[in-house]
Amino acid sequence: MAARQNSRRWSGRVTRESDALDLEKDIFKARSAEKIAQSLMRSAERSRRRKSDPYRSAMSMLTFYINRAGKNLSPSRRKVLNNAKNKLRVAFGREPA
Questions:
Q1: Which distant-in-sequence residues (6+ apart) come within 8 Å of 54 by Cβ?
Q2: Would the pTM of this model clear 0.90, i.e. be above it?
Q3: In the chain, what are the helix, strand and coil shares in percent, each to the nearest 5?
């Protein structure tokens, strides 16, 4: 039973201990898509532990969070986080999809 319980919490460990980025505390709880995008951009550009370019690392972490939260995200939170994706694209000079 303990092994199953630990395996269900791997995503939290990834968010905390990932080599991709050092994230600002509780950034995904921010109400502003702009604030989330700017924080992810700063974290990605400052990180020396990431394995790919800053844009890809930031977008990957945001997508990972959205996917792992799954059904637990309210429609309004999902909308803010998806808007943060578009803000992140613009911040890195990429066209929003």
A1: 41, 44, 45, 47, 92
A2: no
A3: 70, 0, 30
Nearby residues of 34 by Cβ (< 8 Å), 6 or more positions away: 84, 87
Query: Per-residue pLDDT tens for 25-79?
Result: 889 899 999 999 999 999 999 888 777 899 998 999 899 889 988 888 999 999 9
Residue 47 tokens, joined: 């990180």
Q: Which of 46, 47, 43, 81 is nearest to 64 (CA)?
A: 81
Q: Residue 27's closest CA among 70, 50, 61?
A: 61
Greatest extent of the chain over all pairs of C-alpha atoms, in Å: 48
